[in-house]
Amino acid sequence: MENKDSRSTTIPKIALGAWSWGAGAAGGDQVFGNHLFEAELKPVFEKAMECGLNLWDTAAVYGEGTSERILGSFVKDERRDSIILSTKFTPQIASDSPDAMQEMINGSKERLHTDVIDVYWIHNPMDVEKWTPDLIPLAKSGQIKTIGVSNHNLAEIKRANEILAADGLKVSAVQNHYSLLHRSSERAGILDYCKENGITFYSYMVLEQGALTGRYSEENPFPEGTGRGEAYNPYLKELTALIDELKIIGTRFDASPAQVATAWAIAKGTLPIIGVTKVGQVEEAAKAAQIVLTADEISRLERLGDETGVHTLREWEKEM
Hints:
The protein has 320 residues and is an alpha/beta fold. The chain has one domain: NADP-dependent oxidoreductase domain (TIM Barrel, Alpha-Beta Barrel). It is built from 14 helices and eight strands. It has helices spanning 28-32, 38-50, 66-75, 100-112, 128-131, 135-140, 154-165, 184-187, 190-196, 227-232, 240-253, 257-267, 279-288, 295-307, and strands at residues 15-17, 55-57, 84-89, 117-122, 144-150, 173-177, 200-204, 271-275. It has an eight-stranded parallel barrel, surrounded by four helices. Helix 2 runs parallel beside helix 13, helix 3 crosses helix 4 and helix 11 crosses helix 12 (257-267). It is globular and about 50 Å long. The relative contact order is 0.14.
């Protein structure tokens, strides 16, 4: 049994992230300082579908299921085959039941109003030996189309692939933190491994939760008391030269710093996940997919990213 996404030819260049939707533990209010629900987000979803951005990434853990619930409230009114749904099993919130993964995906399917998850991820590698085998019955029963692992290092990805291969399955997607400030997956050889093995690398936090958009500065910091405020406010001065270069390159394309940073991630052969909470952000993302950077622009951005000295490893992550 080959584990492939039957719609692989129609996957857009950019995925849209719903981490900042909803509220609750690990939700949009705590991490981003947002309080966004169906009324504010429906136009965002509609604009994305209009732009052909139909790949949505969420997780059961985001806002204790509220992110999935909001997304699902929109999905139920659409033709199911017009949307690609990506969600995650998070070991940290799993029950002690031997059917913990089945239980979590049941909740996700209910909230998302679907019988099938297009891309299903093990969110964090708490125990590769324990959790990877639980994906096999989900794939074989048709509940999931594509297997992914997130926040796994190269050894863990290879081990997951070995476990799955025994049943004729494979890891088809890897999702790790990857940005101009955080290229550990590239340096560890994960990007090369994915390229060599036909694995799609989804890059999350490409915009560092807004730090690379040019919107925030020492004069206009992130909201206090939020996860991203604590992570980035101390380093806004160090990011100035990189943001300035993103702006300079952007003038060639009439593009924002966020669009250029997104285009960089695409140029590196990754599929960036861009969190969206406003219609304008969706439109920006759609245009970013059309930007083609030169090799010189890419190397300039990477040099400035390295020179910031900013280390954006977050509390749930590890070095790759």
